Amino acid sequence: MEIKKQTNLRGTLTVPGDKSISHRAVMFGSLAKGTTRISHFLEGADCLSTITCFRKMGIDIERNASEIMVHGKGLHGLSAPDSILDVGNSGTTTRLISGILAGQNFISELDGDDSIRTRPMKRIMTPLTSMGADIVSKQDNGCVPLVIHGKTLHGIHYDSPVASAQVKSCVLLAGMYADGITSVTEPFLSRNHTEIMLNYFGAKVTSEGTTASIVPEPTLNGREIQVPGDISSAAYFIAAGLLTPGSEILLKNVGINPTRAGILKVCMDMGADITLFNESTEGEPTADLLIRTSSLKGTTIEGGIIPTLIDEIPMIAVMAAFADGTTVIRDARELKVKESDRITVMVDNLKRMGADIEGTEDGMIIHGGRPLHGATIDSHLDHRVAMSFAVAGTICDGTVDILNGDCVKISYPEFYNDLYSLNK
Ligand code: S3P
Predict the structure, then answer these.
(1) Which one of 62, 137, 357, 373 counts the least CB within 10 Å of its CB?
(2) 351 and 221, same structural domain?
(3) What atom in ligand 1 is closest to the CA of residue 165?
(4) CA-closest residue to ligand 1 atom 11
(5) How far is the CA of 372 from the centre of ligand 1 (A)?
């Protein structure tokens, strides 16, 4: 995929539905009684993997042009799949579904692509095992393929060593099938879509500080869900609008849940001109975001804000390379175990474009303001790397050629069309 310099990005965009919320809507809808209607569902490959898995367990899921209808069968309504559940590239599918499968009365096996086969699953195997689950990594390397023999589970309190919504959600979902209350404490609060949505379906989830607890055996009832625009997808247009001269972009109906909106705070700290309109606080909070070209300066990003912008760090690294001064990113070791090692991959590719950047154990240091030039970028099949460098290509001189750029289909199939739509 070749990207060339652009100016005057102007227009209005509705970014696709939130990936985390779309996954959860299908999963919880499958475990609810009655029909769940989901509008603005993300038709990305990851969420389609979740649909495929639940269809294989007997759930009727209809797709039409404007919505998804999940005909749920209740908490104990899944049936044994007759073959491997294919999770594709999706960490969210793998980790959340494992919590559900651990409490079923059947055996299942999960497998996926080469990337997911390297991602750490011990982080969920450990708490699930202490709940009484039987979950085995077939190659004994703590990764998929995983074989799960469903069991009766016990409620636990789990002190998670990582601030991970996937780990937290996995344990809470297993907790629905336990014999007592299950709770999870994490070092910093990670995204709380599971807690919000499970309660909306009728479960009893309470949150206090960084601890979430669930009462077992909830009755979940089918609901209507309007998925907000994904702030992680909006991030590319926030950056493009801020950095491209003469730009003004309106992003409609973007999710601004505080556990996800760290990118907005960082942009403001960097000097961004962003205005929020039409804020709504019903359910998942949303707003329209007006982005105008700004001169950005470096900043420090560390501690509790990291989980609230973990998926946006590739884009933030690119922004920092174009900003004046130094940006330091710390406490982000988790970047190493995403769809690619995002510290190494961002540092290598930004260096190819002429940036002054060094990787650290848990982040990066970027001395911004050096003029960047076109280069061939290896996406490592990581959708967020590809999109971040597409934005870099709209700003720098020369051509940015992104290898395997079509991996954007994981979370944003129409990304390149939307990017080009702004320069007409
Ligand atoms: C997600 C949580 C995050 C995030 C991922 C989606 C979720 O992962 O990076 O893209 O939907 O729960 P971790 O929970 O592993 O940090």
Answers:
(1) 62
(2) no
(3) 14
(4) 20
(5) 30
β-strands 10-13, 248-255: how paired? Answer: parallel
Sign of the Cα torsion 111, 112, 114, 116 reads: negative
The verdict on 185 and 266 lying in the same domain is no
Token couple for 367? 């001395």
- Least Cα distance to 215 among 242, 250, 181 occurs for 181
Catalytic site residue from 230, 311, 378, 382: 311
Token pair of 409, please? Answer: 């289909």
pTM above 0.85? yes
If you measure from the C-alpha of residue 233 to the centroid of ligand 1, how many angstroms do you get, rounded to a whole number? 14
My answer on whether 26 and 138 are in the same domain is yes
The candidate with the shortest Cα–Cα distance to 205, out of 226, 227, 187, 220, is 220
Residue 370 among known ligand-binding residues: no
HEC-encoded secondary structure of 43-85:
CCHHHHHHHHHHHHCCCEEEECCCEEEEEEECCCCCCCCCCCE
Asked if residue 247 and residue 319 are part of one domain, the reply reads: yes
Interval 346-401: pLDDT, tens:
999 999 999 999 999 999 999 999 999 999 999 999 999 999 999 999 999 999 99
Q: Are residues 137 and 268 in the same domain?
A: no
164 is in an annotated binding site: yes
pLDDT > 90 fraction of the chain, expressed in percent and rounded? 98
Q: What is the DSSP letter of 380?
A: T
294, 234: one domain: yes
Give the residue numbers spanning the domain of 398: 2-16+228-421
